[in-house]
Amino acid sequence: MSAEIRASRDVIVRTERWGEAMAFYGEVLGLAMTPAGDALARFETGAFALYVERGSAHGPVFEFLVDDVAATRDRLLAAGCTLVEEDASVPRCYLRDPFGLIFNLGRASA
């Protein structure tokens, strides 16, 4: 039996063009923004929450939630995914599936 994986409403976009991104999503699109730290902002779209993070771009990232990040990461790596980035202190990791989709694998809330 495989572990349950479920999607969150979160989509993450990372960019080095932080100020331009804040202006585009907040002023041009008119999305409501909530600061989430010095390098992260949340924009509410209705259908999903768009997080804009300061840093090196790697395309839009969807989020999947699991009970055990490490075990699920290992299972997905064995199935052909590649590790893009990892932060065990959160815990979370970004994976690229065999078809090019990058997603964040995060821990589900209890």
Automatic annotation (TrEMBL):
Protein's organism? Dyella solisilvae
Cite the Glyoxalase-like domain residue spans from the record: 11-105
The protein's matches in InterPro entries, at most eight in alphabetical order, are given as:
Glyas_Bleomycin-R_OHBP_Dase, Glyoxalase_6
Q: What is this protein's record name?
A: VOC family protein
